[in-house]
Design brief:
By secondary structure, the chain is an alpha/beta fold. The chain is built from 8 helices and 9 strands. The longest helix has 15 residues, at 73-87. The model has no long low-confidence stretch (mean pLDDT 92).
Length: 236
């Protein structure tokens, strides 16, 4: 029986995706890794199919499940919640621009078991030099190793506890949104759970590698906000 269900939603960005996959494959412990391929290009789909044998993950191509165009994060979370509940294990979301360390998954699991009333537990994100980066810049001067936070946790590398998964159905997730980390973080708190950020458990984050258009936020803000509000991209 695996200790956790680890999921990675994938939309192209094959270079960082393969780095993420390899790091999870090398992690200590028995963890079930499922890739949800959200309408990547045929070329990248073929690479994901080819690498299954090498890295031992399960691959679900969402084009076999739905006709709804990407992003399908709500469907990914619904399918993953059902699988985690059947196995009665935590769900860990690791996005395709994150690189973990060998002990990351086991340490997240151990912390979630001893942290009181744990709903969610996130690993702090850093650049390759070890400096805290987006989306946790507001914690860059934090000295506590484990923070009970009211801030929303990103799904960069975050554990959702079995208790939280049993407490409400992800079928409730709005189809009007694209991303759900803010909603689920708030729902966890509303249900009486605590959300923790582990600042002593860093993972490398390469922000927006899977959604390059979001780099416009820093290089061309006008075009970024046009996409966000007029084209209704990146709804949270």
């Amino acid at each position: 029986m695996p200790k956790t269900l680890v999921i990675t939603p994938v939309k192209d960005s094959i270079e960082t995706t393969l780095q993420t996959i390899e790091a999870i494959h090398q992690a200590d412990g028995d963890h079930l890794h499922v890739i949800y391929n959200d309408f990547s290009s045929p070329e990248n789909k073929a690479i994901l199919e080819e690498k299954k044998t090498t890295f031992g993950y399960e691959l679900i191509n969402l084009e076999d499940v739905t006709q709804t165009p990407s992003p399908n994060y709500n469907l990914v979370l619904q399918m993953a919640q059902q699988k985690a509940k059947e196995l009665n294990i935590p769900l860990i979301v690791i996005e395709s621009d994150v690189i973990i360390w060998k002990d990351t998954l086991n340490k997240m699991l151990d912390l979630s078991r001893i942290a009181p009333a744990c709903g969610m537990l996130g690993a702090v994100t850093t650049n390759e030099d070890g400096d805290i980066n987006f989306p946790y810049l507001n914690f860059k001067n934090e000295k506590q190793p484990l923070i009970d936070t009211s801030h929303s946790l990103s799904f960069c590398c975050t554990l959702l506890s079995p208790d939280l998964l049993r407490s409400f159905s992800f079928q409730e997730l709005s189809r009007e949104k694209d991303w759900y980390d803010v909603f689920i973080s708030r729902k966890s708190k509303t249900l009486g759970y605590k959300n923790y950020l582990a600042t002593m458990l860093p993972v490398i984050h390469k922000p927006h590698s899977s959604r390059p258009w979001k780099q416009l936020k820093y290089t061309n803000p006008v075009k970024y906000y046009f996409n966000k509000f007029i084209n209704r991209k990146d709804r949270i």
